[in-house]
Write a structure and sequence with these properties.
Two copies of one chain form a homodimer. Chain A has 108 residues and is of the alpha+beta class. Helices cover 23% and strands 18% of the residues of chain A.
Chain lengths: 108, 108
């Protein structure tokens, strides 16, 4: 198994209703993760890109959170509709998608 | 929230008994993850190190799997007893622990 060129981590953290801290799980993160897996399957770029789901990545109020290494680029408020753009522009072509970056207040 | 200098990802993937693919969840990965969180808490290095649990990281037969970015260094067969060494030598001091590296057959 080769080490991927880019590894995307998608938060799937959930919290019970009424919990004082929000969670990506309340904001459709599962659809975001599924869309990354779908894009990977469609592209067949298994040697280049890896997709992994995670527990809490930290900036819960700004989720769904998506983190790309080795750059350490975090995206916030990611919608299913944004995934193909992140996949193509950043994961495949190496150019982070500026308009979807997490606010520097939360990840800098 | 600052971007950490090093971000360690600990696989917590489980699979039902009898599943043809092994899983880190059958190999005490929860204790490994808890030990990373314990080391982080003890060190108070929250600005420098981040610990995140994950779904499957890939090399299931060699788990528990632990992955460190931005280097993209993967450790295999990690035991709770190994965590303090990885934490101190690699996450804090930046020197990967050679003897615990995942075999290059599985991550290269």
């Amino acid at each position: 198994m080769p080490k991927p060129e880019r590894h995307v981590f998608v938060c799937l953290q959930n919290r019970p209703e009424g919990h004082p801290r929000p969670a990506c799980g309340q904001k459709n993160c599962t659809a975001v993760a599924e869309e990354f897996f779908f894009n990977l399957q469609q592209s067949q770029l298994f040697d280049k890109v890896q997709v992994t789901t995670t527990g809490c990545l930290g900036p819960c109020s700004e989720g769904p959170s998506v983190l790309v290494y080795p750059e350490g680029v975090m995206y916030g408020r990611v919608r299913k509709e944004d995934v193909a753009t992140i996949f193509e522009e950043h994961l495949v072509n190496g150019k982070p998608v500026e308009r979807l970056l997490m606010s520097r207040e939360f990840w800098d």
